[in-house]
Structures are given as C-alpha cells and as structure tokens.
Amino acid sequence: MDKCAIFIDGGYMQKVSTRSGIPVDYQRFSNLLADNCPILRTYYYTCMPYKSSKPTEDQNKRYSNAQRFVDTLKKLDRYEVRLGKLEHRGNNELGNPVFVQKRVDILLACDLVLLSSKSRISKAVLFTGDSDFVPAVEIAKSEGVEIVLCYYNADGFNPHKSLMQIADEREGIDDLTLKSIKYTPK
Prior knowledge:
single chain, about 190 residues, 6-stranded parallel β-sheet, 7 helices, globular, alpha/beta, 8 strands
C-alpha cells in the first residue's frame, strides 16, 4: 500500500503560527496535508530554545514551554520530533545574542532521502519554504516519490523559487484553511 510522510519545518511553522495567530491542531494538520493518503509518519523538525548554564527565569519558562510542546507532539499518532542544535553566533549590532538552528535541515533531508531510497513512501509532503531541500527532493523524485510542497499562502511566506519549480504539486494554505484545523482545548 502506498504511504506518505509529512515533513514539517518547525521554524517555518512557528513563523506561520505567529503571523496567523491561529493555534493548529497538529494531528488534523497532518491529515489535511496527507490528503487521504495513509501516513507512515509525520516528522517535525525544530530546536529547543537557548538555556544558559545558569538560566534566567525567562529562559526556564521558554524552555519549559518548548519541552511541553515537543512532548505533546510526541504523543500524537505517528509523530516523530527531530531536534537540531541551537548555536550561539555572537552578538548583533545592539549587543543581543544571535542564535542559529543547526542540523535541522540536514535531518529533514536525510529522512526524506532514506525513506525514498528504501521505498517506504510513495509521496512526501513538505511544509517549508527553504531551498536547502532541493537536492534531497531531487533524489526522492529520482526514486519515484511524488513531492507535494505545502506552504503558507501569505506575503513574505512564498517558498523559494527553486523549491516551487521542483515540486510535483504545490498547495498554498491560507488562514481560512488553518481556522478549519484550529486547536481547541478539550
């Protein structure tokens, strides 16, 4: 039976959530992206926030909230959370620390290539806008995997042109669609 895998770029998703202001039910989001294809697994890629060796109250709160979110995702059916590393890259012109996510993109690319090369999936749905994934998409396509690029259809969220061009299908998701899968506490 044909299966699909969903690949969610957590940094991209966080920007979408901030911009839209709509809390998403992630189980329903996966089902929406799968479009009736049986889901092998949904992969969510992110980094935990910075926490110093002597964390401030704010750092502890942000880290705790992020850990709760990750733990919630891990409890969802067929969800896998992949964590990258947050790396300090000096300070900006105002003296504020600058942090960069590392390993997140390569984790997604490795998972996409591995699942494709082992014929575990026939369809890959990517929720991202990053052109770093183009080489992995090329390999997946050469293995016969259908690539569907889903993205937030709003100004400033358009995927990179090369990613749009290489995808087999493209689907913009707007606020109305996000509202249809809005998280509502039980």
